[in-house]
Amino acid sequence: MEATPQRRERRARNIAVVVLAACAPIVLLVFARLGAPADGTATFPSAPPWGDGVVLADVTSQPGDLRPGDRVVAVDGVALRTWVADPPATAFRVGQVLRYQVIRDGQPRTVEVVLMPYPLVRKVVDNAALHPLLIALLAVAGFVFLRRPDDPAARALLAVAALVPLGLTAFPYSTQVIDVVTGRLWPLVVADTASLLMWGAVLHFTFVFPRPSGLVARHRRLAAAVAYLLPAVLYLANLARTLPGATGALERTGLLVTISVPAANVIPFAAAAVMVLSYRAARDRATRQRLAWVFAAFGFGLACYLGLGRLPEWLNGTPLVPWAWQTLFFLPVPLALGAAVLRYRLFDLEIFLRRSLIYGALTGTLILIYFGAAAAFGALLGTPVQVGPLLAGGIVIGLVLSLRERLRRMVIRLIFGDRDDPDEVVRQLSQRLEATASADSILHNVAQTLARALRLPYVSVELSGTEPRTASHGRPAGNPVTVQLTHRGEHVGQLVLDSGPIREPFGPDDRRLLDGLARQVGVTAHNLLLTVRLQRSLERVVAAREEERRRLRRDIHDGLGPVMASGGMRLELARALLRTDPDAAQAVLADLATTQQQALTDLRRLVEGLRPPVLDQLGLVGAVRQRADRFTGLAVTVEAAADLEPLPAAVEVAAYHIVSEALTNVVRHAGAHACAVRLWRDEGLRVEVSDDGVGLAESYRAGTGLLSIRERAAELGGEADAAPRAQGGTQIRARIPLPRA
């Protein structure tokens, strides 16, 4: 990990990059447009191409008689092709009057034009709807880049966001006729070159989003080179096709400065194809969701563009929403791109997107048929098409279809419950379980919640184990589906869902619902089994403790007690016999010594029953090694951390018995040749016993040995489990908490 100063320096550089990306378009726009006088016109070299003149695409802030669609062929009597070939030596100034010779409706006209300062403020106001999209794109891209500066998708997105506004001096702050006259075309060249690079960045983004894969992952630099060189190749190919046939300097200049148009005609389709292929090739659900977000955002903008722009214009000649404001329809796109790159999962979009596309296509088809029929009858009868009634009818069709779908969902929910919304079923189940205080009522609440949420006549939850438990709600109806419940590979029970003879049975489409329920109920069943096992373990501990006390009392009362009492009496007898019969006293003392030796043996047996003495003699590691040496025919290695001991007495006893039980299981069931025992500290005492035996069967269920190991660990608040090893065999791992110092 980098040191803190290095991270700060890198973050400062990243912030500087974002600030530069935001400021560069503004600086270019101001410098390019405020540095020369303006005539209030706008022309594009590609629509239509420059030939013997330039066609005006727009006219703003011009008191003269210029109109959009006029073709300017000369200025002050000099043809534009001559101006381009030989620009004026002296600069024009604000207030100067020029005479534009134009062709309008096939007739030549002369229009006086007064040069003025560039109307930047008015242009900004006229294009107010464009700037929120640019700001949102740059803000989202900058935020994503600062969060993930090493992500190639974040870098490509920032490049797109920075290059889009750099193209503003090509559109909408476009080239003017006066720029063509003076040869001041560098703002157009810079802007169109930025647009060319922008299309390369778009293609690069689709290559690396949501993540590089396949050839792109193996050849990242080559993929980036292809992405950025392809627009340039398209530009050069277009020049090679059109430039040889150009006549005059004006047409050649128009072709040379038409830099990004060939890429704009090809790259969007290529990028869309790459995104679709990425979606089809995606293996995991999260990747498909991220791509679905982008598709949904673009689909929304495109649907609004077609439905509120192109279609009304085709029918009535005027879009319902002005073209300048239709950029707002694409505001969700930057947000979707940012969320997708940052891997945010807001909610499952695939089902929503699929159904929206189906019903959206159905609605759109019906509306198009309706509009087409109305337009055809209008043309047949010679009456103009009124877009208002048509739009009202289209809205009615859409509302009817929407209400139909809503009604369908209400009926389905009434009959089938929340089967179509697995997340809602799991959420209801989680809330009900959180509100359940008693372990005895958990299974019943699970069955009841699922029966109500899914409108099922019968639900049953059955737990496996040494003490099977079952809870049900309702009555069996003869159409059950059984879902096996597992947790970490261990079978913990089964869930029975009965849809009955009337309702639709569970099918393949319900697999996601059943899998989600299996996970949630499986965890609940596992926890309940642990609770039951812990309770039984505690009961056994208490019973064993009381039984041990009873045994100690019996052994002391019936064994050591009489021996000690008779020993005192024999000592008195021996003392009395010393004066009168020394030989008899000697015999009494010898018998007393034998009795006391037996009593000492019994006492040692009692002590060994309380705690293995080998732990006090050799410690845990030595005791484990001694225990391992007793298993002949099995090569056992014992590894212990240097800082393992000392350990609390209860922990030592539990660990010793866990290892002993695990080794016994290996010998009895594993068929292993070698076994390894590891002991170390890591948030408690860790015990690991691994063997190279046959491993666990698929239908494996915990037996008495593993249950005993789990109980030993659970008595001290720990846990234990068994799992197959990747290289074969079985591994038993246990964790026993250690008291804090």
TrEMBL record:
Pfam families: HATPase_c (PF02518), HisKA_3 (PF07730)
Highest taxon, organism lineage: Bacteria
GO cellular component, one term: membrane
EC number annotated for this UniProt entry: 2.7.13.3
Enzyme class: transferase
Record keywords: ATP-binding, Kinase, Membrane, Nucleotide-binding, Phosphoprotein, Transferase, Transmembrane, Transmembrane helix, Two-component regulatory system
Cited SUPFAM superfamilies: ATPase domain of HSP90 chaperone/DNA topoisomerase II/histidine kinase, GAF domain-like, PDZ domain-like
Annotated transmembrane regions: 12-32, 128-146, 153-173, 185-210, 222-243, 255-279, 291-311, 323-344, 356-381, 387-403
Single GO MF descriptor: protein dimerization activity
Protein name, entry field: histidine kinase
